[in-house]
Automatic annotation (TrEMBL):
It comes from Cryobacterium psychrophilum. This is DUF3499 family protein. InterPro entries: DUF3499 (IPR021888).
Length: 77
């Protein structure tokens, strides 16, 4: 496995999410850590990904990658 550090300067924590910019739609997508590094994406640690906001005029789409709240929303039996 290839652990990449957070792309924020002076952070260096392990990344848990990847922020990708879709320039065509002015959309920033925050999702699970990408397997391959994309030059248009930024790897972020849990803290920095939680603080991420979209640039002005952009829309931020946040996928659920954080299972902080222990809600057993997995198996409905
Ligand atoms: Zn960080």
């Amino acid at each position: 496995m290839s652990n990449r550090p957070c792309s924020r300067i002076a952070c260096g924590k392990p990344s848990v999410a990847t922020l990708t910019f879709d320039y065509a739609d002015s959309m920033a997508v925050l999702g699970p850590l990408a397997i391959e590094h994309d030059p248009h994406s930024f790897d972020l640690c849990d803290r920095h990904s939680a603080r991420t906001t979209a640039p002005q005029g952009w829309q931020l789409v946040r996928h659920r990658v954080f299972t902080d709240q222990a809600g057993a929303a997995g198996s409905a039996t």
